[in-house]
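Hey, can you fold this?
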Amino acid sequence: MDRRSFLLSTTTLALSQIIIGCETKQAPLNIQLLKNSIPGQVVNQFRKTVESGGNLKFTPIDQIEELFKLLQTWQKPPTNKNQKSLPANLVTLGDYWLQAAINQKLIQPLSTEKIQNLAKLDEKWRQLVKHDQEGKIWGIPYRWGNTVIVYNQEKFEKLGWKPRDWSDLWRSELENRISLLNHPREVIGLVLKKLGKSYNTENINQISSLESELQALNKQVKFYDSTKYLEPLIIGDTWLAVGWSNDIIPMISRYQKFTAVVPQSGTAIWADLWVSPTGVSNDTLAYQWLDFCLQPNTSGQIALLTKSNSPIGNNIAIRDIQKPLQNLLLNNSEIFAKSEFLLPLRPEVTQEYEDLFMKMKKS
């Protein structure tokens, strides 16, 4: 369920299966997408806008890891010429995988002049999908979410306060009461954020207070895991957890005693993007789809129906969001400005994060 691992899969929400166009020949638009990340209603609306609407193919894939492997497979010489797999026009990819796909030459830049609604994305999104000095755009975001704090309201009513920011995790009342992700970048990152620094800090060994802060946080933690971190919270073994919004939203929709908050000093962001496999000749139809996803109404519908966030600002009304989810799905521009995507680090820096994380858990 770890969006930021090349080893673990990605959890999505249980929406209806979308889709399938004509199977007898190559469709004019062939999209391989993360299952449940695009509502069937949105696909049907797009079909009505194009002449070949009945011959479009949208194929849901369970995990981002599978989509990444498809990108790799399409760039390999076929082992059997009669069984060559044709690449899709567009594919879902998580932001954390983007740089690896570029480095391995699995994807190609998009023609920005063909995407009229690109101007609706603010600079933070543009910087995410550029990844080079030439200004090329390598992907188009269509939904996103956060690393957030979720907690048991009943326990905190007795304490007389509510968690609002990362610094609350160190409060004495939470000793041995917290579930954390078993993820060096996420855990060390939230401590860096508490210290006023970036999730993507490289010189972590030069931050004198970092190790002591990590040791103090470890005393608060009862459970580390990136897949089952919510289970101790549900059964009452912990009172608070840190995790990904796409995992947490289904839980708080089901259990009224839990609520979630995006930390005020900023957090880590994940995003689902459209990318184009290397060598594919994308015509007008593929760019129509990208533009369609960036229309405010469409983007808002994707966010509401998949219970995620929209990369297009101010296109969702508060009345359209269930009250328990408003803390997570109403975009706060101030918090968003302080939040960050986890960018790839040099291998030696990544190793420093992993070593420090192991040392923290042994303290």
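Oh, and this one too while you're at it.
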Amino acid sequence: MDIFGEFIGTVILVLLGNGVVAGVVLPKTKNHDAGWIVIATGWGLAVALAVFASGHISPAHLNPAVSLAFALQGTISWGTAILYMIAQVLGAMLGSLLVYLQFKPHYDAAENPADILGTFATGPAIRNTTSNLISEILGTFVLVIVILSFGLYHMPDGIGTLSVGALVFGIGLSLGGTTGYAINPARDFGPRLLHALLPIKQKGDSDWSYSWIPIVGPFIGAVLAVILFNIMS
């Protein structure tokens, strides 16, 4: 059940998160051009609601970087972490497919390949490898060290879940504007792979030359967060 929880939780996460991006950037939607604050708010709510939906049957990591952190801490085994990561990638792909089906007429009307890709995967506002990598490292570092710190406090489950959503919202507002803050390898890789596979008009390429940054950056950020957390505690 743990693995299914990670799968279905990530489906909901990406469905709601990429759904708000699609609504903002694709043409002729009711919320077209609603702006970055709406996207950051949507992703924060997506995380909170996905954790609420799956947290009773799994740890609700919903993020390979978070699973890596708990494996490093010894909370879960490495085998379990790998299975979680696979389930998270597959869940992200299904969630993104559902977004595509929901917004199919708007994808058909879209003419900007960057906007189309942006509803699947992240991309930098200014392409600079070092800066973009630092952005993903820092965002995930904050995410993981705060999640680990939540475990030091006796918070009711609902408050803890809402706090994670608020954390993602805060990261989006403060650090997310440079790369779109993937801070989650599954959230970026799974939908990017689906983008490459789907027959979308005017979609352009899937920008695989950038794709390693939202994978490597979050993993580095998670490792650094675990190291500092262990020093602090």
